[in-house]
């Protein structure tokens, strides 16, 4: 992944973090020494989710999973450029 793509990923995660924070969720941006940044979201029920931005054929998407899940669920994603991405994720994780 190029440096430009890493900056894009970071920008998407920061924007989503601010949007989720505005909806009342506890958010942390995790920046590991190696690997990609991850947004950690604590749901209203206390479940911690890891949200990442991934480049796909349709552009950047957010995907999420509980902290304990080993595999990404393929049906848990939303296009990163969506104005309501935070609202979609909040609705999905509270359902």
Describe what this molecule looks like in 3D.
The protein has helices spanning 3-22, 85-94, and strands at 26-30, 38-42, 48-56, 59-66, 77-79. With 95 residues, the protein is an alpha+beta fold. The chain has one domain (3-94). It has a five-stranded antiparallel beta sheet, with helices on one face. The radius of gyration is 12 Å and the shape is globular. It starts with a helix and ends with a helix. 20% of the residues are buried.
Question: What's the quick description here?
Answer:
By secondary structure, the protein is α+β, with helices and mostly antiparallel strands. It has helices at 3-22, 85-94, and strands at 26-30, 38-42, 48-56, 59-66, 77-79.
Shape: globular
Largest pleated sheet: 5 strands, antiparallel
Low-confidence stretches: none
Number of helices: 2
Q: Report the β-strand fraction as a percent range.
A: 25-35%
End-to-end C-alpha gap = 34 Å
Domain module tally? 1
In what order do the strands lie side by side in the largest sheet? 1-2-3-4-5
Tell me the radius of gyration: 12 Å
Please state the structural category: alpha+beta
Estimate the mean pLDDT confidence.
87
What is the count of β-strands?
A: 5
What's the SSE pattern? HEEEEEH
Helix content: 25-40%
